[in-house]
Write a structure and sequence with these properties.
By secondary structure, the protein is mainly α. The protein is built from 22 helices and no strands.
């Protein structure tokens, strides 16, 4: 049965890595994989419990009077903790998506589109990356990428140039998102599992991320033309001819983004899970939204306001993907397979840098979430080599997060943001490898050099 579980995971991740070729939705594969491996786990539940939870299961049997003690124990004490932790992350993503939707429906991001009307390609790149970075450190990087890619698509008429700017958005969103614990689901997962604390993590990773981003973008400059032709894009019809005043939109933008920035502080003060902070911010924003839109809340124009359907779809796919992959690695950890890896891992991997780089290469093919969840599962089962510093705020975790962020950008298929870019701009993987991959690799090496210098 263990062999069957490993085989399903292998086939599943192979399908995820080749999504553009097999045309099979990676989120659907992840969900099916996550459910199937747990069903197989239950089939051999008695053997797994005897090997991994012998003492706890014997104690449970002494008080349980029913016939299905194995299935009940697995459901309540093995599966449920994984499910609760995973759902907490998914609900956090849902709150951030809803916050973005409220802000987007009220035209709070139109400021960015107004400021991006410039004729200089380099100035446009600078503004684009600065806005993307500022959004990504507060919002999820997929959310930020979808917003900025859609905005760039409506402003830049040249399709080849849109690919270049799209690449800049993807790299900036992933690297800037990795700087904070709320800017990327990967760093959030590390925080959720108490492997890092917000302040220490940001301090350790911000300089390598900044250096790698600057190096990558500087290498991108030769692809820019001498003049940029921006097209005038009429703002979408919102259901009526009225809109919130600039001050009202600015107020909502500050509440939404500033509130998310306050989430780590909220957690430190109250010790509530980060989800509670996001829910609190969403509640305040919804109240302000109703107060600002009170004059036409009862009218049907609110129903006809724009909904960012592409943004919703992409983020729902990300939530489902995280749910499926997280459950898959949870089942794999409970089989004992991960705990046995420590004895078979090659000796040359028993070091922070080589193992983090290996995880980054894995992320470039199988998605960054998979790489992070694999490391978290192996850390929980003590399967990582003992020479790797896996304690809370250990040097390995910022290095891992950075490598996964850069590795995910190495190939366009390594992130959901990259797949969205390929779909939106009809970008061939061959073009990305030729023009973008080597630039990411140079930036990655520059960031690793900074890690070596500061450690």
């Amino acid at each position: 049965m263990t062999i069957a579980i490993v085989a399903i995971l292998f086939v599943g991740f192979l399908l995820i890595a080749t999504e553009k070729m097999n045309r099979m939705n990676s989120s659907a594969v992840a969900i099916f994989m996550g459910v199937t491996v747990w069903v197989l786990y239950v089939c051999m539940g008695a053997d797994y419990l005897a090997a991994e939870h012998a003492v706890d299961f014997q104690t449970f049997q002494s008080t349980f009077t029913g016939e299905k003690s194995v299935k009940v124990f697995i459901s309540e004490f093995v599966f449920l903790p994984y499910f609760i932790k995973t759902c907490s992350t998914v609900l956090f993503l849902f709150c951030t998506i809803t916050i973005v939707e409220v802000l987007n429906n009220n035209r709070c991001f139109d400021f960015l589109q107004e400021w991006l009307y410039v004729g200089s390609p380099r100035k446009f790149l600078l503004l684009l990356t600065v806005f993307t970075a500022l959004l990504s450190i507060n919002l999820d990087n997929l959310t930020t990428s979808c917003l900025m890619l859609s905005m760039t698509h409506s402003l830049v008429s040249n399709s080849s140039l849109r690919r270049v700017y799209g690449f800049a958005i993807i790299v900036t969103a992933n690297i800037a998102g990795a700087v904070t614990v709320i800017g990327d689901v990967n760093s959030f997962t590390l925080w959720q599992n108490k492997l890092i604390t917000p302040t220490h993590y940001t301090t350790a990773i911000i300089l390598p991320c900044l250096v790698s981003l600057v190096v990558t973008l500087v290498l991108l400059l030769p692809l820019l033309p001498h003049h940029l032709s921006t097209k005038y894009s009429l703002l979408p019809y919102r259901g009526d001819d009225k809109s919130l005043s600039r001050w009202q939109r600015l107020l909502m933008l500050v509440i939404g983004l500033g509130g998310l920035w306050f989430v780590p502080t909220f957690h430190r003060i109250t010790q509530f899970p980060p989800l509670m902070g996001a829910v609190c911010v969403l509640g305040v924003l919804l109240i302000v939204n109703e107060l600002c839109n009170r004059s036409f809340l009862s009218a049907d124009v609110m129903v006809r306001k724009r909904l960012p359907l592409a943004l919703q779809y992409a983020n729902i796919q990300k939530m489902l993907f995280f749910l499926g992959v997280s459950l898959s690695f949870g089942a794999l950890a409970e089989t004992g397979v991960l705990s046995k890896l420590q004895t078979i891992l090659p000796v040359f991997l028993n070091e922070n840098y080589t193992y983090a780089i290996g995880s980054g290469v894995f992320a470039s093919i199988f998605n960054g979430m998979s790489a992070i969840l694999a490391n978290v599962s192996m850390a929980s089962t003590e399967a990582l080599p003992i020479t790797i510093d896996i304690s809370q705020n250990g040097a390995y975790w910022p290095l891992l997060s950075f490598s996964v962020a850069m590795g995910g950008c190495l190939l366009c298929i390594g992130t959901l943001e990259g797949l969205y870019l390929m779909t939106l701009e009809e970008l061939p993987l061959k073009w990305y490898i030729k023009h973008c991959s080597w630039r990411v690799l140079v930036g990655w090496i520059a960031g690793l050099s900074v890690f070596l210098f500061i450690c």
